[in-house]
Amino acid sequence: MGSFDTGAGDLGSFFRDADAAFLMVKTDWNNIHGHYPAVARRFVDALRNSPVRLAVNLTSIGSEVKGDTGHFAGFHQLDQALNQLSDVDLVHLRASWFIENTLAWAAAVARHGALGWSLDPDRKTPWVATDDIANLAAKELTNPTGEHRVIREVGSEDLTMPELAAIISREIGRPVAYRFVDRKRQDIEAEFLKRFGTPEQWLDDSQTFDALNDGRVRFHGHRSPLPTSMESFIRDVWKPRYLATLADDREPETFPTWSSKD
């Protein structure tokens, strides 16, 4: 019928047979700050004259914060646009980091025994499994509260990066270190721009980590416990990927892998 990513097709009739909708924007890394507001406008235009009266929006931790928050800024724009829908009840699921994102470090641990990232070592951040998000969204859609605007903070465990490294270390039986990647170092920025990404991506990532490290982006309220723990994910999903990488490591070097070097 069409694509909300590109705007192609008859989006005006996309929801014509629906009374509820789940909304999620796929990040376009080639158009980081233009994509979210564009898709949000298409959502609003398509929903405004549709029969949909309940929408569950997958948004992000920090989406309430206005300003230069990097990747979180797009979610702020998304939420603000959807809140214009006065005839639609909205549930905003403010999700934390996807636990599946830790798979990006499988090669880093296999090659270098370390995780490289730019979160301050003493800064805790929450993680959540996408299966848990899906289950929460399904519950909101099938058991609506009838409230006009609902915000759910969605995240399981709050962990520092050294704590995450320790969990991985216990599961795989070898030491794993956390290596803080200082984004103020010009040599690191130069290597990123040379091999891994664009100036826009570097700036976006830097603003993202600044917002996390200075505490602007964080959870504020009560969160219900979720089924998937970091320990179980590392054991059941992450470790098999790590072992496969050890057995046949032909993946091209990524920035997470390169930045995990000693």
UniProtKB/TrEMBL annotation:
InterPro entries: Ergot_Alk_Oxidoreductase (IPR051604), NAD(P)-bd_dom_sf (IPR036291), NmrA-like (IPR008030)
Gene3D superfamilies, alphabetized: NAD(P)-binding Rossmann-like Domain, UDP-galactose 4-epimerase, domain 1
Alphabetized Pfam families for the sequence: NmrA
Segments forming domain NmrA-like: 119-211
PANTHER family: PRESTALK A DIFFERENTIATION PROTEIN A (PTHR43162:SF1), PTHR43162
Protein's recorded name: Uncharacterized protein YbjT (DUF2867 family)
Biological source species: Rhodopseudomonas rhenobacensis
Lineage: Bacteria, Pseudomonadati, Pseudomonadota, Alphaproteobacteria, Hyphomicrobiales
